[in-house]
Amino acid sequence: MKAQDWAVEQVWYNGKFYRSPEELAQKYHAGEVDVVVLEDLWLQGQVLVLRTMSTVYNYDYIWDFIFYPNGVMEAKMHATGYVHATFYTPEGLRHGTRLHTHLIGNMHTHLLHYRVDLDVAGTRNSFQTLGMKLENITNPWSPEHQLVQPTLEQMAYPRERQAAFHFRQTLPKYLLFTSPKENCWGHQRSYRLQIHSMAEQVLPPGWQEERAVTWAR
Ligand SMILES: [Cu+2]
After folding, report:
1. End-to-end alpha-carbon separation of the chain, Å?
2. Ligand 1 midpoint to CA 110 (Å)
3. pLDDT tens, 28-66?
4. CA–CA dist 127, 179 (Å, integer)
5. How far is Cα 163 from Cα 127, in angstroms, rounded to an integer?
6. Ligand 1: distance of its center to the CA of 176 in Å?
7. What is the pLDDT of residue 42?
8. Cβ–Cβ under 8 Å, residues 45 and 34
9. 18 Cβ partners below 8 Å, 6+ apart?
10. Which residues cross the membrane (predicted)?
11. From residue 68, how far is each of 61, 73, 123, 162, 174 by CA, in Å?
């Protein structure tokens, strides 16, 4: 599908809900949204990028929402602008790397949080996971032998808290936004969530200012 044929039906963007491409276009003309069409060398097609920037103190964050022709959606954030730094002392090297004569880029964390309300073939979606479980069976055509084979393990999480996973916990193989609607083979239509994040538990849970960012646990 050509990028010029793409249609925006409903867009949740920067805390506002846009019901039409015209509304989004208004915001675009106001300079708050950039729409960039990029050549995607890997897929040999074009991708649509919704991009915005936010300046927070020394940082200029770039927020990208990328839409691929095959249906994949990707959210990316880059931190640009001025680096967070402190005065150089030799002891400071325990906390960062030297950048200049009197400057250390000290270690710190950027925590950000996406709240995703993804509609997969309708609004009645649920969160599910798909994992792998081994089973030990008797080989049907050779009963004197045992066989260990993988089976699919589907899990439903009816409550939001149950779907909150802690850092360092082994995640199920597939995290799925699942529709009650089925495809022609009887499988529930789903979108897979892939997390490419280096975020971690920054401070011990409950420790002083950590209580201000409990959403980051
Ligand atoms: Cu930083």
Report:
1. 40
2. 6
3. 777 766 555 566 666 667 788 888 889 989 999 999 999
4. 9
5. 7
6. 31
7. 65
8. no
9. 8, 10, 11, 12, 24, 27
10. none
11. 22, 6, 22, 31, 20
| Cα angle 102, 103, 107; round to 5 | 150
Cα 215 to chain centroid distance, Å, stands at 15
CA of 85 to the centre of ligand 1 (A): 9
Tokens, residue 95: 């906390």
Region of 208 please: left (phi>0), alpha (psi -120 to 50) or beta.
left
For the record, the structure tokens of 111 come out as: 């925590």
Residues 131, 161: Cα–Cα separation, whole Å: 19
Strand ranges, E, within 57-166: 59-67, 73-81, 86-87, 96-100, 103-106, 126-138, 146-156
Segment 163-194, tens digit of pLDDT: 888 888 888 899 999 999 999 999 999 999 99
- In three-state secondary structure terms, 37 is strand
Ion ligand 1 residues within 5 Å by Cβ = 84
Cα→Cα distances 145→72, 134, 137, 142, Å: 43, 16, 9, 6
**How far is CA 85 from its chain centroid?**
28
Tell me, in angstroms, the distance from the centre of ligand 1 to residue 62's CA: 13
